Amino acid sequence: FFLLSGLLFLLFSEKRALLRTPYPYLAAGVSLVVFLPVIVWNAQHDWVTLRHTAGQAHIASGLQLTPQAFAEFLGSQIGAVTPILFVLTIPALFIKHLLKKDVRHQFLFWFGVPIIVFFLAKSLQAKVQPNWAMTGYITALAAVCTAAFGGYGLPEKTRERLRRFFHIGFALALLATVAAHVVPATTLLPVKLDPSARLRGWQQMGAQVGAIEKMLTEQGGVLIFSDSYQVASELAFYVPTHPKTYCINNGRRMNQYDFWPDMNSAAETLKRTGVQAINGIYVAAGNATLPQSVAGAFERFEKRVIPVYDKGQRPLREYSVFICYGFRGLAAVRPTTF
Q1: Do the Cβ atoms of 304 and 323 come closer than 8 Å?
Q2: What's the rounded Cα separation, in Å, for the pair 191 and 185?
Q3: In sequence order, what DSSP letters do the residues of 71-114 get, joined into one string?
Q4: pTM for the whole thing?
Q5: What is the per-residue pLDDT across 224-280, written as a single tens digit (0 to 9) for each?
Q6: 139, 107 in Cβ contact below 8 A?
Q7: What pLDDT is stored for residue 285 in this prediction?
Q8: What was the pLDDT predicted at 151?
Q9: Are 193 and 297 contacting, i.e. CB atoms less than 8 angstroms apart?
Q10: Among 28, 170, 147, residue whose Cα is nearest residue 98
Q11: Burial of 13 per CB tally in 10 Å (0-12, 13-18, 19+)
């Protein structure tokens, strides 16, 4: 988007003469050289970044209309930027005389509008995550501030009106930010309606899994794993020993864990150091059953259901922790989706 916005800015502004000089192309060439290691790595790994992006963008879905996804995305943008600031970006960016004469405003326009419009259009085809368009608001909000406080040649009454709305929008944004930090620390919201609830309880989970890990360490090596990269990552952080964790493929799409050494490699490394007994701790969200592939990779297992709570001792959620004994090797499963 940066390259596209830069090209559009040069094409449709008084700076288009720069396109007849070597400088834009030299800059693009330097950028390509800096970016070359990413291209080489992708070529060596089946272009996985492009596959992942295409999967996230639902390219395989083809042409279709999803009015619900469009409404959800538009609503998410209004909520993320706050309704007032979102509405203010429209007149602030589309000031006609500035689009024709002011190169600074043209810069803000071309580095904001194409990005926001693209994702609005994309949401008509499939679901778009709220944060994808956020880079477009960097210059959009700068345009709002400049229109309200910088003059831009606007009548004083217009600028005064813009400033008033800007201050209200800023106050709403500040209030939303404060509420996002304060409300979760209280019991004002039911757990099911509190989007921040998923951020809490991990320290308790880490402590309990850490106690099991300590017990198993006395018997030999320990492999801590999950079928969710979120759970595996949180355990790597919150288990007191900060262990290396693993994310097995149990029908999930590809993620970063597939590029790192797997459990079989870890077991071989442990055996080379003289460790004979290798056990495991498998953690899954909810009251789950142990996947057949995992059950077959160990001699036996036992299950514990561990709840986690917030500061008010309200139950947040529960996890199934399987203590697995005698690792025999896990069949490798190649991800089919990205």
Answers
A1: yes
A2: 11
A3: HHHHHHHHHHH-HHHHHHHHHHH--HHHHHH-HHHHHHHHTTHH
A4: 0.80
A5: 999 999 999 999 999 999 999 999 998 888 999 999 999 999 999 999 999 989 999
A6: yes
A7: 93
A8: 64
A9: no
A10: 147
A11: buried
